[in-house]
Design a protein that fits this description.
- The chain is α+β, with helices and mostly antiparallel strands.
- It is 59% helix and 13% strand.
- It has a domain of 74 residues: Orthogonal Bundle (Arc Repressor Mutant, subunit A), CATH 1.10.10.
- Strands 1-3-2 form a three-stranded antiparallel beta sheet.
- Helix 2 packs across helix 5.
- Pfam families: HTH_5.
- InterPro entries: ArsR-like_HTH (IPR011991), HTH_ArsR_DNA-bd_dom (IPR001845), Metal_resp_trans_reg (IPR051011), WH-like_DNA-bd_sf (IPR036388), WH_DNA-bd_sf (IPR036390).
- This is Biofilm growth-associated repressor.
């Protein structure tokens, strides 16, 4: 057996299960096309208000509010209120890392 071969006995299966569960929850949150579209817009701008998200994505109320609510509940976005406007930004480092790859692969446009 080479030194590069993974020793199966050294794997902490319980830690791996916990990590898999966390990754699965993140991917479940990202598995809706409107949520991905919203997150792509937020990643691209760094922060976006509800009005701008509605205009840029074409997602209308109440679906927009519902999908932003799911992202909030799952800890993927932060909110900031300025007067009557609510601004959204990415809250989760894990979601940001995944979204950066997805943004580069699927959201960014060639200019």
């Amino acid at each position: 057996m080479s030194t590069d071969t993974l020793n199966v006995e050294s794997i902490d299966v319980e830690a791996l299960k916990a990590s898999a569960s966390k990754a699965s929850a993140l991917l479940k949150s990202l598995s809706h096309s409107d949520r991905l579209l919203l997150l792509c817009q937020i990643v691209g701008s760094g922060e976006a208000c509800v009005r701008d998200l509605e205009q840029s994505t074409g997602i209308k109320q109440p679906s927009l509010s519902q999908q932003l609510g799911v992202l909030r509940e799952n800890g993927l976005v932060n909110t900031r209120r300025e007067g009557r406007q609510i601004f959204y930004s990415i809250a989760s480092e894990d979601a940001l890392a995944v979204m950066q790859v997805l943004y580069q692969r699927f959201c960014a446009t060639d200019e």
